[in-house]
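Summary of Year 1 activities. Much of the first year was spent building the evaluation harness for sequence design. The harness presents a backbone, in tokenized form, and records the residue chosen at every position. We chose the following record to illustrate the format because it has been used consistently in internal testing since the harness was completed.
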């Protein structure tokens, strides 16, 4: 005989899904705020971005923090979210009468868009991690006591002038000898037409050039604009429901105020993200 006082397992799984979503919201705010520093302070060559990224990479036990406070919670939220996606039933569109249809309520539409953005986030996160963490992640080496970081970049009119200001060395394939620490990496994947390597004195500087390189491609502008829009809606619409689920906003006035605040945060963080996407190369770091 089951214990009537026991907490049902589905309730616990729902609360775990809600709680792990908070980790995503906090990371989204921090991540896009830092990324915006590559674009917002025009004329400073992304100094704020470089300093913030370098500060993060000086945190002790960073890989364990990334896995424990980011990777595991976001993976759990994603896994549980996919399960709920297949059981969710939206009622914000017109039907033939066989299913409920309540399109006049804005929160019903928000529920539907929360499901739509889940799919965009699922594939967007996979793409983002593969692209930024594996494909474009700076290679590193040590020369004496100095760490150096290398990325590939497509030559453009402003790259060399910017690199000089950042203290970055630009090398073409014919300048890389067998004694170079980058020689083996280029043997596995030679430079393409018009490609050079950029050797930066810090991880933050190399990462800034990765962001610049990414957002000078029109296809990446489109992909990341969609991704950031979906992430901001999903995260801050979810924050509003989180506050209700955990008993923080239970009265109608408090829910109304929290909805306004959530929308404000949604727009603010979306601005950070879109500034990074559209401003890093095309406004701040093109020359």
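For this record, the design step produced the sequence shown next.
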């Amino acid at each position: 005989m089951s214990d009537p006082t026991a907490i049902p397992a589905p309730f616990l799984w729902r609360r775990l899904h809600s709680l792990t979503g908070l980790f995503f919201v906090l990371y989204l705010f921090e991540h896009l705020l830092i990324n915006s520093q590559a674009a917002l302070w025009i004329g400073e060559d992304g100094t704020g971005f470089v300093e913030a990224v370098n500060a993060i990479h000086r945190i002790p036990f960073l890989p364990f923090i990334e896995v424990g406070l980011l990777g595991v919670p976001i993976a759990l939220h994603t896994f549980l979210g996919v399960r709920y996606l297949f059981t969710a039933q939206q009622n914000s569109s017109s039907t033939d009468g066989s299913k409920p249809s309540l399109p006049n309520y804005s929160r019903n539409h928000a529920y539907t868009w929360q499901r739509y953005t889940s799919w965009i986030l699922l594939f967007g996160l996979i793409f983002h991690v593969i692209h930024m963490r594996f494909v474009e992640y700076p290679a590193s080496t040590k020369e004496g006591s100095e760490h150096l970081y290398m990325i590939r970049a497509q030559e453009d009119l402003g790259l060399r002038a910017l690199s000089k200001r950042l203290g970055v060395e630009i090398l073409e394939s014919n300048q890389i000898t067998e004694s170079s620490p980058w020689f083996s990496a280029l043997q596995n994947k030679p430079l393409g037409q018009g490609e050079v390597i950029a050797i930066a004195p810090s991880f933050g500087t190399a990462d800034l050039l990765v962001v610049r390189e990414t957002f000078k491609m029109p296809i990446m502008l489109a992909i990341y604009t969609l991704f950031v829009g979906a992430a901001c809606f999903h995260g801050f619409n979810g924050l509003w429901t989180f506050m209700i689920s955990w008993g923080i906003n239970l009265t109608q006035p408090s829910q109304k105020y929290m909805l306004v605040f959530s929308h404000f945060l949604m727009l603010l963080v979306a601005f950070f993200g879109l500034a990074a996407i559209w401003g890093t190369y095309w406004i701040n770091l093109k020359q």
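The chain is about 65% helix and 10% strand. Quantitative recovery figures across the full test set are reported in Table 2.
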